[in-house]
Amino acid sequence: MAQLHVGQSVGMRCAGLVFFLCLLVTANMAHAARFRAIGAHPAILYNAPTERARKVYIAPSGMPVEVIIELNGWSKIRDASTGLSWVENSALTDARHVIVIVDNAVIRMAPAERAPEAGTAMQGVWFKLLEPAHAGWVKVQHIDGTRGYLKANDVWGD
Length: 158
Hints:
Blueprint lengths: L1 H31 L1 E5 L4 E4 L8 E5 L4 E8 L2 E5 L5 E5 L3 E2 L3 E4 L3 E5 L8 E6 L3 E9 L2 E5 L5 E5 L3 E2 L2
Antiparallel strand pairs: 1-4, 1-7, 2-3, 4-5, 5-6, 8-11, 8-14, 9-10, 11-12, 12-13
């Protein structure tokens, strides 16, 4: 009977350790997810974290990506199309960009539906993120210098 009790105790300890490790990994993965962008030069995206892996895409400079996890100098990323791939960490920048995900987004002069229009942007256009989402709007700047506000639901990367 004593052996059964010892075995149960060890089993409970193992189960507790496994549960703790799962929580730790999940917390680290959630913490690791953040938005970044492809740096000053186009970057090769791979299907695994090695240069010997299959090349899946050449990402243009400035493309916004979500870093899911970092591993040995590589980042697993998601792009606006929800595709997953790997890129070398050195190819990323902490600069924040957003990409328009609707057919035609209206850029407003102020964060309000009735504010004057500063312009419009078609799906796929990138903007530098100047201020994160607040009350449903993001403050952005286009490469041509146009500044304004876009609805947070009209962009990806914030």
